[in-house]
Amino acid sequence: MPKILSVKQLYAADTATVKKNDISFIDLMEHVGTLCFQWIHDRLQGDPITIQIFCGTGNNGGDGLVIARHLKQYGYNVKTHIINCGNDRSEVFLKNYDRLKEIGVWAEMITCESELPAVSENDMVVDAIFGLGLSRKPENLIKKVIEHINGSNAFVLSIDFPSGLYAEKSVTDTVSVVKAYHTLTFQTPKLAFLLPENRYYTKTWEVLDIGLDAEYIYNAKTDNYLLYKQDIKPMYRFREKFSHKGEFGHAVIIGGSYGKMGAVTLSTKAAISIGSGLVTAHIPQCGYQIIQTSVPEIMVEVDAENEMQKFDININATVIGIGVGMGTHIETVKGFTEFLNKNKVPLVLDADALNIISKNKELLKLVPENSVLTPHPKEFERLVGKWKNDYDKLKKLRSLSKKHKIIIVLKGAYSAIAHEGALFFNSTGNPALSTAGSGDVLTGIITGLIAQNYHPFEAAKMGVYLHGKTSELAMKTKVYETFIASDIIDYLSSAIMDLLMKEPKVVPQKEAESKNDKKAKPDEGTEMYI
Ligand SMILES: NC(=O)C1=CN([C@@H]2O[C@H](COP(=O)(O)OP(=O)(O)OC[C@H]3O[C@@H](n4cnc5c(N)ncnc54)[C@H](OP(=O)(O)O)[C@@H]3O)[C@@H](O)[C@H]2O)[C@@H](O)CC1
Ligand SMILES: [K+]
Known about the structure:
There is one protein chain. By secondary structure, the chain is an alpha/beta fold. It folds into 2 domains: about 5-220, Rossmann fold, CATH 3.40.50; about 240-500, UDP-N-acetylmuramoyl-L-alanine:D-glutamate ligase. Helix content is about 40%, strand content about 15%. It is built from 18 helices and 17 strands. The chain has helices spanning about 5-20, 25-45, 60-75, 90-100, 140-150, 215-220, 230, 260-275, 290-295, 330-340, 350-360, 375-385, 390-405, 440-450, 455-475, 485-490, 490-500, 510-515; strands at about 50-55, 75-85, 110, 125-130, 155-160, 180-185, 200-210, 225, 250-255, 280-285, 300, 320, 345-350, 370-375, 405-410, 415-420, 420-425. The strands form 2 sheets. Strands 8-17-16-15-14-13-12-9-10-11 form a 10-stranded mixed β-sheet, with helices on both faces. A hairpin with a 2-residue loop joins strand 16 and strand 17. Helix 2 crosses helix 3 and helix 14 (about 440-450) packs across helix 15. The protein is elongated, with a radius of gyration of 27 Å. The protein starts with 6 loop residues before the first helix and ends in a 16-residue tail after the last helix. Bound molecules: ligand NPW and potassium ion (K). Ligand NPW binds near residues 13, 14, 28, 86 and 212. Homotetramer. Its EC number is 4.2.1.136, 5.1.99.6. Its cofactor is Mg(2+); K(+). It catalyses: (6R)-NADPHX = (6S)-NADPHX; (6S)-NADPHX + ADP = AMP + phosphate + NADPH + H(+); (6S)-NADHX + ADP = AMP + phosphate + NADH + H(+); (6R)-NADHX = (6S)-NADHX. This is Bifunctional NAD(P)H-hydrate repair enzyme.
């Protein structure tokens, strides 16, 4: 599972690599810079645009100088600038400065504002000012350089980090951070990239495997992970030939109120669509016909006329998803409180169930261990109060989940799943999911997975992953705006198929060409799945 390592661990990985792998730091930097050069070269293919490389005087700047040298040697139109960041220059920065000189290139020093080079919007900027070593907010000349880059409208590629962005704490001066278009970050994902407060500093990013010591990374302890397909796929359980619906549990969804029956409809439909053996909706009477007609595959139990009051469930439920569209009517609050006092079944709590708990936090003590809470940020704020910044928010998330031994899915662009003090960030999804009912569907998916005996932690991770994946797969025929919550359910099959599909074999370009440009295809038939 991709670990998100701390700055300290990354420097230690660096040292371990040099120590154990018989490679000098200058060679490691050469390797890293070459990978970045290759990334650029693969995309530009010799394009004669101007590439302006801005270097600091630490090792991030050293990476920039390696990139500059390789680009120059491949005939690119490169302008290299060094920003005077003080008297310290790292040893490998200086070595690479000399290597650049050896091929006849003198990097321009920027020592004052009047020396800022003109940058056109047609240029490409490589930002190699600061990386892991940023120790304070950029000021004076460096801030001016960053503002100059940001004002240029050029395509900005940041090396390791957008300069000015801290790896593990909040930015204090939002204008002294490079606004990258893309960032090539080294070895592991960085926590900073997953936080909404840093949304403007890099539109996209990717991890370059720079070959840091695998043993160190394997043994490194962390509480932050980014979930990819390879982490979810092994959880999937194939159905046996003789299996029957009784083996796949009974999910109950409690919720709905007059005018909000759509939420339960979506939740129950998602629960049955993800494979729950049986699904029952426990709803107010006003929604009876609506839900029976909309989701004929499920059963229905009714409560009071227009909102939930009695919570009198007559089913042997495997799991109960509760709260969607439920409202916070005084009788609902009363009934819900009594329900929590009696209930022993694992829960998935969403929407109004969370809103009611927010007003009486003592209720959290009644939530069974390993239940799943699925708040969006506003609901989470109601539960834990305001946070100072996104790092503080994550701290609150870990601590609430740990304190009550529950799993919390904090929804967002990188939904964070908190379990036993650790955070697991989801990597799938896009803004199409910002649509009404999207959360109701997620509640149904997680509930339906728990019904099938997936551990609630597994169900949360797999549910969030698949939910996100549907939005990616749908973009072949839809756009963000036209994607609606029902589409998530419609695309669940595709998301599961995608999960099980073997990755196409990557054929090196030369080999592919020699085979008459045949593209690598996924294996066919039963071999398609593993
Ligand atoms: N990890 C790896 O495995 C590998 C890492 N590699 C690369 O190394 C990068 C890390 O390099 P790094 O440690 O030299 O730090 P870097 O970001 O260049 O800056 C440090 C310099 O900037 C200065 N400085 C800081 N803030 C400042 C400010 N606001 N205003 C002014 N000055 C400021 C700071 O000064 P000081 O704080 O000491 O006063 C120091 O002089 C990493 O991101 C990656 O690109 C790869 O090449 C190889 C594998
Ligand atoms: K940088």
